[in-house]
Design goal:
The chain has helices at 36-51, 87-92, 99-118, 161-169, 188-199; strands at 2-5, 8-17, 22-30, 60-64, 76-81, 85-86, 131-133, 139-141. By secondary structure, it is α+β, with helices and mostly antiparallel strands. The two termini are 34 Å apart. It has a five-stranded antiparallel β-sheet, with helices on one face.
Length: 201
């Protein structure tokens, strides 16, 4: 399907990865550089998806750009983990969800949110369309374009990026491993350093 958001357009299709031997989703982002704010959101989302490694966060498997010797490309291809649907489509589908289904979906959603928060990130783009869901009731979060750190109070789309970098770089380190819902060991200082690099310029 095709989804238009501001001046950037995306197309998503299903494909089969012959090397990994599994079905994946390919997301084509067109008119990548036409809007600077939207471009920053896309870059933020890509970097966070690439950094996170958790069962309840959608996995970014690969990135491709069109072959162009002049590097004048304006499209980007993201290879993503495949999901059956999202909350928006699920809620519009005439299917019966039992109380157990609702509890499992909500639990899996909160596990994902807890992991993201334990990494020092607040997902301000949290909405049903960014909560992917599978038939086994597993939930995977995506859409981190407007993510921010609690200390900064700014997104990468804000114009005052230098102040955001100062706050992001001052993020305190925490030990957030399995006990706090972060099995990868990603700490707030790791994400803070990345955010500082992202915000500069």
């Amino acid at each position: 399907h095709t989804h238009a958001h501001t001046r950037t357009h995306t197309d998503v299709c299903e494909a089969y990865d012959h090397q990994a031997k599994k079905v994946v989703a390919i997301k084509r982002i067109r008119r990548l550089f036409e809007d600077a704010t939207e471009c920053k959101r896309i870059l933020t989302n890509i970097c966070l998806l690439n950094r996170f490694d958790h069962d309840h966060v959608l996995k970014l498997l690969d990135i491709h750009i069109p072959f162009d010797t002049t590097m004048q490309f304006d499209s980007l291809f993201l290879v993503l983990e495949m999901a059956d649907s999202d909350f928006t489509k699920l809620f519009r589908t005439p299917v019966y969800l039992s109380e157990l289904h609702v509890k499992v979906l909500l639990y899996n959603l909160l596990v994902g949110v807890k992991f993201v928060h334990s990494a020092g990130i607040i997902n301000c783009g949290m909405k049903p369309a960014n909560c992917m869901v599978n038939q086994d009731c597993s939930v995977k979060l995506t859409g981190f374009g407007d993510a921010r750190t609690p200390e900064s109070g700014l997104t990468t789309a804000d114009t005052n990026t230098s102040r955001g970098a100062d706050h992001a770089s001052s993020t305190q380190a925490t030990s957030s491993n399995t006990a706090s819902g972060n099995p990868t060991g990603t700490s707030t200082s790791d994400i803070g350093e990345w955010r500082a690099k992202m915000c500069v310029g």
